[in-house]
Amino acid sequence: MTEAWEAPLREAVAREHDNTVALLQRLVRIPSVNPKFVADPAQNREAEVQDAIEAELRALGFTTERSFPLPNRPNLYGHWAGGQERSLALCGHVDVVPVGDRASWTTDPFGAEIRDGRMYGRGAGDMKAGLAACIAACRAIRGLGLVLDGRLEFHAVVDEEAGGFGAMQAAARQPAPGAVLVAESSGGTIRPSAGGLEWVRVVVRGLNGHSSRRFASIYPGDHPARSSGRSVNAIELGARLLGAVRELETEWGVNRSYPGMPPGMNTISPGVMVAGAGCGPDGMPTILSNPAIVPDTCTIDFDLKFLPHERSADIRREFEACIARFAASDPWLREHPPQVIWDLYGLHFPPVDTPVDHPLSRALRESREAAGLPVTFEGALGVTDAAHYAAHGIKGIVYGALSADAHGPDESVDLASLLEAAQMIAAATVRFCGLRT
Ligand SMILES: [Zn+2]
Question: What is the per-residue pLDDT for 245?
Answer without folding.
Answer: 98
